[in-house]
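Hi all, posting the design record for the shared folder.

TITLE: backbone redesign
STEP: 1 of 1
STRUCTURE INPUT:
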């Protein structure tokens, strides 16, 4: 392949997807989540700073959470707490900041779960499935 045949990064992102690669192209161009998200209040505490939990508005999905916060650096570990309908106890888990959005719209921290109890993960999936079924 000659350098002339290669596309720039921008062309690659805007080029139409090859047949059969639509899902991958959609994820690259926009929303990268594998599951829907639902709004939720989330209690957050930075692991290395300790201190008290602070309530944040955000949303939750199977793989992680998003909450409004501008000052967390990528890679920062956080402790998360939240309540799910149908689950007796509060979910407590660990997460890692993987991205921080600063632009227009909702600025905030995108956090993936790194240590979450299996029953909590299953409860999140069930909660999201139940909400999707009620939309249909």
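Okay, here is what came back for every position:
SEQUENCE:
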């Amino acid at each position: 392949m000659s350098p002339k045949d290669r596309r720039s990064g921008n062309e690659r992102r805007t080029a139409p997807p090859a047949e059969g690669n639509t899902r991958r192209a959609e994820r690259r161009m926009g929303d990268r989540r594998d599951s829907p998200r639902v709004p939720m209040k989330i209690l957050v505490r930075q692991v290395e700073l300790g201190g008290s939990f602070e309530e944040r508005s955000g949303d939750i999905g199977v793989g992680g959470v998003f909450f409004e916060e501008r000052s967390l650096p990528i890679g920062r570990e956080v402790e998360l707490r939240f309540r799910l309908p149908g689950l007796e106890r509060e979910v407590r888990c660990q997460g890692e900041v993987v991205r921080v959005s600063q632009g227009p719209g909702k600025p905030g921290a995108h956090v993936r779960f790194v240590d979450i109890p299996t029953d909590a993960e299953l409860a999140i999936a069930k909660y999201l499935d139940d909400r999707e079924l009620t939309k249909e």
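COMMENT: Strands lie at 38-46, 54-60, 64-67, 77-82, 91-101, 108-115.
Let me know if anyone wants the other runs.
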